[in-house]
Design goal:
Layout (H helix, E strand, L loop, with lengths): L30 H4 L6 H30 L5 E5 L7 H7 L1 H4 L8 H9 L4 E9 L3 E8 L2 E5 L3 E4 L4 E2 L12 E3 L5 H15 L6 E6 L5 E5 L9 E5 L3 H16 L6 E5 L7 E4 L16
Parallel strand pairs: 1-3, 4-7, 7-8, 10-11
Antiparallel strand pairs: 2-3, 4-5, 5-6, 8-9, 9-10, 11-12
Length: 288
């Protein structure tokens, strides 16, 4: 057997010879890769708070310097709304202490409260209009009835007291405990709608302390006013009973009826007017 012969083969064309042994070269890492990287997370977290503080301070300083030029005195008051019971002059006089302020310092809430304390004002809205104007929109009370002898009731059942009541004697007069204003108003509206088809109107409605109701109709096309004693509770049912009996029996005699008592369970009682004695004509005396 012939011994194995080792032959050294030259490298293939285009290839570099591979170094042998432990003396192979190792590629060096760049210096930037071997140095520790700087951590900027702390600076980033600090940047936004500082920026906000700077912006806030700049805004405050700018507003402070510009405020004297922007905050002008109030030179115009515009009053809006359909006013029938109060005049614009009365409104201007009422808010005069507030108008001396400037555009940004004027007390709108205080002005609104002051206006709504006027008896005829039900609601007030107040707003600024740049650069020197205040717009006031007013809603007046809508009087529906008199409350006792000194006040009026609006359509919400709320009492208010104007200075003069002489011009409102044509309104129905309602009476009751102070806490029952809305209750009396609601009953008035319900009963008034039930009586209207008969030609009756309500001249007076009273709720007494013990809960009894008394109603007086106004004189009109159906005849002179009559008094209805309604008692406690079930007012609508009692009024329906009166309407049914009125159409069948009472209609032709209504001018002779003074009051009707509806406090019975299944009927009513009629109180008749006293007949008026005819006046005797005095004989004429002949003069010579």
């Amino acid at each position: 057997m012939q011994g194995a012969q080792l032959r050294h083969q030259p490298p293939a064309p285009g290839r570099k010879p591979v170094p042998r042994g432990a003396s192979r070269m190792v590629a060096k890492e760049p210096m930037s890769a071997r140095l520790p990287k700087a951590n900027f997370g702390f600076l980033k977290s600090l940047f936004w708070p500082v920026l906000l503080v700077v912006l806030g301070f700049g805004t405050y300083e700018g507003a402070t310097r510009l405020l004297p030029y922007a905050d002008r005195p109030i030179t115009k008051i515009a009053v809006q709304g359909d006013l029938s019971y109060i005049s614009q002059q009365a409104v201007q006089q009422r808010i005069a202490p507030y108008v001396a302020s400037s555009f940004f310092t004027i007390d709108l809430a205080g002005m609104r409260t002051e206006l709504e304390q006027m008896p005829w004002i039900a609601h007030a809205e107040v707003r600024r209009v740049w650069p020197d104007q205040v717009v006031i929109r007013l809603e007046e009370q809508l009087p529906v009835a008199r409350w006792g002898d000194e006040s009026l009731l609006n359509n919400q059942g709320q009492a208010f007291t104007p200075k003069e009541l002489a011009n409102y004697e044509h309104l129905p007069q309602l009476f009751g405990p102070q806490r029952a204003q809305q209750q009396v108003m609601q009953q008035y509206q319900v009963l008034s709608q039930m009586l209207r088809p008969l030609g009756f109107s309500i001249a007076r409605l009273e709720l007494r302390e013990r809960g009894s109701w008394f109603l007086t109709t106004g004189a009109g096309s159906s005849g002179p006013g009559i008094e209805l004693l309604l008692g406690r509770g079930n007012l609508v049912e009692k009024m329906r009973r009166f309407i049914a009996i009125y159409d069948k029996t009472l209609k032709d005699q209504i001018t002779n009826i003074a009051r009707i008592d509806l406090r019975y369970a299944n009927g009513l009682a009629v109180g008749w007017r006293e007949p008026v004695a005819p006046t005797t004509a005095q004989p004429a005396v002949a003069k010579n």
